[in-house]
Amino acid sequence: MTAQPLTPGAPAVAGRDLDAGVYHLERSLSAAEVEAFGREIDALRHRHQADLGAEDAAYIRRVLKIRRWLEIGGRGLFFVGFLPPAWVAGVLALGAAKIIDNMEIGHNVMHGQYDWMRDPTLNSRTFEWDNVCPSAQWKYTHNVVHHTYTNVLRKDRDLGYAVIRVTDEQRWRPYYLGNPLYALVLGSMFEWGVALHALELDNTHAGRRTWEENRPLLRQTRRKAARQVLKDYILFPALTGPLFVSTALGNLAANGVRNVWAFAVIACGHFPDGSVVFRAEDVEGETRAAWYVRQIVSSSNISGGRLMHLMTGNLSLHVEHHLFPDLPARRYRMLSAELQEICARYGVPYKTGPMWRQVASVSKHLVRLALPPRRRHS
């Protein structure tokens, strides 16, 4: 990112509140203050990066074991799936394994958080996750596009996933009357939504991308989807013999548990009231320090304990993740207090709240944006 001087006394970022109006920091920051803020964030990062070692490696290996035993337990319970409690327990155990695989392991490994370990099973270039979307496609749409252009309209394709209206800056159409329904459908089939999202079918339909350009991506997605369907709905159900249908339905339910949870965590991280969107011109010539500020005001955290952090892949500490996406996620808890103190000194808002409150905020927000503006503000 190239440097561009900011007018002294101007806000560090020129974003807009997701509901309406121009967003302002708690106080104006001069260009010098923005850069000083950035230096403190850099120093925080460097201290933790220099401290990486055995404890971080031991943590992710423990998580790998937890995921493995949850999957073995969940799939094993389907062999006695004719007992309803066993079937439900199998769904929950397998769903938890898939959540941990996608969020604490897959998401973080593919950010390169554990490349320094030189462990081939944790290499960001070769890792493949339990998900319909091929990892290579996800790494581009998420790591490159989303993390570079976080909450920038028409650049960050995660902003509403080309399906949901999440800001007034998206012109209202009658289609958006179904906004809450679209969110529910997307959440229930989120892994498929992510795969379609990576294919950029909306851009192909609009003529901004050709079908010829999409053909290699379509082949990758078909192969990955076929493997997932074969594994969850044919091979593992076949192993349980007469319980084939019960096991297939259990796998479907486990995938649904993972999908809904992952979507809820991600929505709480970006779409609650008080989050901010930007126009392309707002981030032209953005310095790294100003990028830090944008990441903070674009993200929200979910408060909770160790179990919450594990089951969200530490995306409950979403602010920290957007600042330090390639630091091992277990580090976010360690640096959070100092980050909050830095933000408080510079007047940069740090947003957090319990899961129920963040989900309620997102739900209210999506319902409000489903209505025409004149009706919504009347």
TrEMBL record:
Keywords: Membrane, Transmembrane, Transmembrane helix. It comes from Spongisporangium articulatum. Pfam families: FA_desaturase (PF00487). Residues 86-352 form the Fatty acid desaturase domain. CDD domains: Delta6-FADS-like (cd03506). The keyword Transcription does not apply. It comes from the Bacteria. The chain crosses the membrane at residues 77-100. InterPro entries: FA_desaturase_dom, Fatty_acid_desaturase. This is Fatty acid desaturase family protein.
